[in-house]
Design brief:
Helices cover 28% and strands 9% of the residues. The protein has 85 residues and is an alpha+beta fold.
């Protein structure tokens, strides 16, 4: 994908890996990125940027540092995840 030239206000874009790197497909049903995302996205009352930091750390750990997600953000306000009803 082409680099993001400009983000709009209150935008968060997350890629499974950094530019010019390859994302690991994993060995199970989901990739390391998707597995980490699914593990943390349901965390209630946590800011989305903190969730994505946790996802990044788990992907890095799971792939022994071979894959590091990239986060591009212009968020000025917190975005809290709500518990499911």
């Amino acid at each position: 994908l082409a680099p993001m030239a400009k983000l709009g206000a209150e935008t968060l874009v997350v890629f499974a890996t950094r530019p010019n790197d390859r994302a690991d497909d994993g060995q199970g049903r989901n990739s390391p990125f998707t597995s980490a995302f699914l593990q943390y996205i349901a965390t209630p009352n946590k800011d989305i940027e903190m969730v994505m930091r946790d996802v990044t750390a788990l992907v890095r750990q799971t792939t022994n540092g071979r894959q590091v997600p990239q986060r591009l953000t212009e968020l000025e306000h917190g975005v809290m995840l709500l518990p499911s009803p």
